[in-house]
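RECORD CONTENTS
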Amino acid sequence: MDLRRTASGLWREGRTGLELAGLLRDPGFRRADPRAGRGRPVLLVPGFLAGDETLRVLGGWLRRSGFRPGGAGMHLNAGCFTAALDVLEERAQTLRDATGRRVAIVGQSHGGNLGRALAVRRADLVSGVVAMGTPLVDPFAIHPVARLQVRVVGALGSLGAPGLFSRDCLEGDCCAEVRRAATRPFPSKVGFVSIYSRSDAIVDWRACLDPAAEHVEVDASHIGMAVNAQAYGVVAAALGRFDAAAPRRRAGKARVPA
């Protein structure tokens, strides 16, 4: 990553409000087709230091489009990676049992890393993963300010601060499985789309180019991908392909996570 370029480019993340305004004017967002999703389940995973609320607009649009979105249950995505993955697996299983269909995962930034890890761990649960601005190839190919945040959170977690990951998650045995999942072969029967932006001021766009994924470029800020009309179009197209021909199982009565 060119640190001089990214250090002077953080101003680009100030576009989020404009991206939201553009989304609210977009015909595809305003006139969502309620028949598009056909009740297919989608698990939404927020980025680092973000919570489910940051994907509320996306979840509302998916619901209006006929999908069945569920949240990751995260108020702040800053905890132990393995614990987070365990929770996501449980929620994906709940969605699978409730709908009889494999679950699509849409993850922003670090949420996409967790989505990839879950697909590697439980390909039977996952129909596809859409990663938005996710440093899949190198999780630390991020802006120095963001890298500092990771180190500070890790240090606080190592000192015992509740709800935060520790340095052992980054380097020790605690989250070795999650770290290995980043390089393990991606399951061939699971769809995989990586959305990236060359004007992303937080993540080096080249780190989003996982060889196993289909790469789609949009014009978006890193934070603004959650409210970007182009990104929504890519998500809609990907979800339309994921699990389209997969057989259904009988749906159970499990409660869909909020």
Observations:
- The chain has one domain: 3-122+135-193+205-214.
- Residues 1-7, 247-257 have pLDDT under 50 and may be disordered.
- Strands lie at 41-45, 68-71, 103-108, 126-132, 191-196, 214-217.
